[in-house]
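Regression test case RT-17, inverse folding.

Input:
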């Protein structure tokens, strides 16, 4: 059975209309407040990869510039006749020992009459030699050596018993007690040390005036005293450059106590700097500081020059 021609053409027209309608773009959604009511997905934009941040390492963090033994077992510059609250004049094991160490009980000649209380902590110190400046020959005071620490065990009216909590070295009869104050080890970031050809920093200068245990030839990790301190604007954590105005030894050396010290060149005679190393300031007094040598290119001696870095 054949369909009428009119129906065939009607079907073809309907098919064509549907096909054309499918090819038309989708109508734009109505706009409200300047934005479409239907969110469209933003096109993806390729971006260059950002560089990864530099890793944080222990080398980039501040580092301790020394150890407890550098400050707690060295010493300080004080008056020639410094006074102390008490003196060691006996010990529990006096019949068997002449030197005393950690956990020994010592007897001192002061008690409640001098303000001592059970639990008080003290340095144990001994007066050592007078320190003479290596270039000016002036007295800088007396060096007092830390021999250890002790805590008061019990107190009587005019005497007390102290227990040695830490001994740096042998503790002698006649040692003194000095009120203990904690000394923090400074943290700092090191920068490259000065080398030949570097100009002076223009900051305060001074000299090495004393060494630990009388060591004459010094290198890295040795502790020294220098003649600059709080009055010169230095503080723990600062660094000093160590140098020498050296032209061979044509200008001679001279003895200062147990040390042989370089004589400075004559006035007006210019000598390039010989850089010897650098050190970190660990503890400061009014006009002195404890310095630990952190780097050394050559042997360092008492009398060598220093400059705040």
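Golden output:
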């Amino acid at each position: 059975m054949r369909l009428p021609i009119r129906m065939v053409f009607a079907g073809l027209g309907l098919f064509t209309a549907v096909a054309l309608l499918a090819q038309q773009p989708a109508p734009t959604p109505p706009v409200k407040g300047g934005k479409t009511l239907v969110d469209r997905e933003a096109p993806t934009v390729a971006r260059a990869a950002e560089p990864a941040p530099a890793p944080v390492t222990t080398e980039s963090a501040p580092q301790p510039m020394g150890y407890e033994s550098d400050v707690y077992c060295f010493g300080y510059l004080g008056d020639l006749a410094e006074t102390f609250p008490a003196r060691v004049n006996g010990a529990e094991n006096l019949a068997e020992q002449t030197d005393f160490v950690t956990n020994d009980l010592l007897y001192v000649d002061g008690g409640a009459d001098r303000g001592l209380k059970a639990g008080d902590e003290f340095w144990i110190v001994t007066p050592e030699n007078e320190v003479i400046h290596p270039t000016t020959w002036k007295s800088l005071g007396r060096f007092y050596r830390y021999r250890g620490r002790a805590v008061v065990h019990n107190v009587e009216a005019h005497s007390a018993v102290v227990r040695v909590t830490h001994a740096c070295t042998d503790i002698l009869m006649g040692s003194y007690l000095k009120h203990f104050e904690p000394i923090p080890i400074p943290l700092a970031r090191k920068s490259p040390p000065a080398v030949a050809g570097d100009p002076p920093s223009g900051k305060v200068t001074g000299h090495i005036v004393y060494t630990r245990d009388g060591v004459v030839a010094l290198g890295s990790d040795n502790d020294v005293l220098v003649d600059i301190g709080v009055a010169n604007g230095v503080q723990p954590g600062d660094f000093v450059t160590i140098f020498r105005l050296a032209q061979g030894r044509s200008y001679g050396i001279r003895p200062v106590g147990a040390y042989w010290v370089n004589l400075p060149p004559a006035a007006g005679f210019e000598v390039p700097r010989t850089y010897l190393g650098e050190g970190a300031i660990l503890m400061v007094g009014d006009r002195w500081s404890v310095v630990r040598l952190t780097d050394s290119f050559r042997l360092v001696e008492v009398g060598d020059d220093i400059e705040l870095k």
